[in-house]
Amino acid sequence: MCAPKRWEARRTDTMSIGRMYYCSPAADERYYLRLLLTVVRGATSFSHLRTVNNHEYATFREACMVLHLVEDDGEWTRAFEEAATFASGYAMRSMFVSALMFNSLVSPVQIWNQFCESFCDDLEHAIVQKGYSLLLSVQPDAEFYHGTRSLDYGLYLLQTSLGAQDRSLGQFNLPLPLFNWNGLISRMTGIQRNSLILNEMSYLQDQEAFSYQQKYAQMNATQKHVFDTITSSINSNINSSHFFLQGPAGTGKTFIYNTLCHFYRSQGKIVLCVASSGIAALLLPGGRTSHSRFAIPLNIHEQSVCAIKKNDDLADLIRETTLIIWDEVPMQHRYCFEAFDRTLRDICSRGDEVTFGGISVVLGGDFAQIPPVVKQGGRPEIVAASLMSPRLWPRLQKLRLTENRRLANSNDTDRQFADRIGRMSYESAMIGNIALPSFLRQMTDLDQFIEDIYPQHVLQRPLQNNDFFKERAILCSKNVNVDANNCKVMENVIGEKPTLYSVDTVQSDLTNTETQAYPSEYLQTLSPSGLPPAVLELKVGLPVMLLRNLNPERGLCNGTRLIIQQIGQYVIKVKILGGSDTIELIPRFTLSTLPDTLPFILTRKQFPVKVSFAMTINKSKGQSFRKVAVDLRSPVFTHGQLYVVMSRATSANVMTILLPENMKHTENVVYPEVLFSDTT
């Protein structure tokens, strides 16, 4: 006869770790219990697991929802409710546009109906301030959405923002403004144009003229020659005014771009400024990324064209444009420029053989910097992607800047430093495995390296000095080193750091049984390029980097550094680091990996930011810092990276370099065939 079964504690002298078995979402509360066990540290009871922010919830599912561990259709509603408690209508409209552009809203109309008054709470004052109310007072029969002019004007502003990104209210089934705001603005300005043109012609000509005169007077002889060459060509023959401006960092390319903008805008003419990256675009007046401004396809190929129709508002804007300025072009694939050229030839109707449709264009950059990224491409493919191809390059007039403006009042060391940077891409002795100059501070101790750039005494008190983070950064060649350095610095940050979790799901053609092989705790360990971390630890005052183009018009671009002002459950309140004091709102978005990145498509719902004490060298392009720490434990791996990182410092004495133990050398990768020369 068998003895009755009973449970007995394991008899062992060693500790054991039990395994949590997988259970699918169909298991309901057991699934949510398991999910909580993967993120709650030191849980002591079921009650403890259900307690979030000192409140015990009735179910594990409710606790998961509060921690944002599961999808919830009502999250956008709660995000706008939260934002309405502290944000202006200006910021909420920007957030609404971002949500629309990401197709994140199931029912945009419902969100508009519920929050339209919050979206427009600043617009009655704006209508009066802009003088619109005087013209409206003589139109007693004017119709407005719901009889309210502020709501109607809000719809007009939303339509304008969407139109700048080639979208419209109608595409989201949102109501259109009933009043003709374009007509009213045209009567006030005397300009009969669409909203995109009105926006580009809204610059105050007197202010632009003053800025132009001020900047032109500050130019050196070479800069004046470049400026005069461009403007004289445009004045005499606009159809053939197509330039490439080569200039290393510090020679004043951006200064010339700005002066050109002021010059033509002071005459009431349109100048469109774009750049290859959001960060570079922020340095240009009214700058946008080239992809967002000209609707360039993301998956570019040899026969691509821009998504611009001949009769739409963007086409009208381009036809009215006097000059297009396009910065940082060496890092973009030549297909982007060829698609743009092909499109302008079509929409401008000045003959198929006229380059850029006869619109004047100034392309600029430095071919010693990082070239285009070619997926799974080696050196031949990268070289072939350069703008220096037979298709467009021979049609451009080449201009060059050489004098470094930063050296005007510099010391001998800085002059040596600048001279070395200028030669490091062109002299064979400085290519390959090279010795770093002795005047640059070098070390091998990571803790000392971190302390040098981010002293503990600063991180261990309330973070309130935005300039401190604006003027410094750790730069690395690879994302894995960026993440490691960010984690290392975060260890020294004291105080409450709310933890924000993602919702991760798998999209694939696998069967349900196969997809179950990817439990949530495994998905949270993945850090694919371009996706935010699954677990975000943040703190008010910390610098973060935006990982998506949310609203380029507002400067919210991929790579923009932000400073955290407030952390809510559904919205993060931020300011652009080094920008204006305008408050911006960052909600959670659902983002996905690109095909072939993983065996499946990983979909992650998370705030699209990451801590930004450190960044990649590629992301640092276009920025200058007063304190630069360069982690070269992993050496650079492509053309121009070492040149770029050396160019980020304003002086030799503000740069610190971290090297592997017993190393005094590092790699300098250069592809001479893509460098600019007087014979190219």
TrEMBL record:
Domain DNA helicase Pif1-like DEAD-box helicase: 218-414
Coiled coil: none
Matches recorded under Gene3D superfamilies: P-loop containing nucleotide triphosphate hydrolases (3.40.50.300)
Domain DNA helicase Pif1-like 2B residues, every copy: 521-566
Positions of transmembrane segments: none
Enzyme kind, highest EC tier: isomerase
Cofactor field: Mg(2+)
Gene Ontology molecular-function annotations: 5'-3' DNA helicase activity; ATP binding; hydrolase activity
Keywords, ordered alphabetically: ATP-binding, DNA damage, DNA recombination, DNA repair, Helicase, Hydrolase, Nucleotide-binding
Catalytic reaction list: ATP + H2O = ADP + phosphate + H(+)
UniProt GO BP: DNA recombination; DNA repair; telomere maintenance
EC numbers on record: 5.6.2.3
Annotated DNA replication helicase domain residues: 605-657
Entry's family note: Belongs to the helicase family.
Name under which the protein is recorded: ATP-dependent DNA helicase
Species of origin: Mucor velutinosus
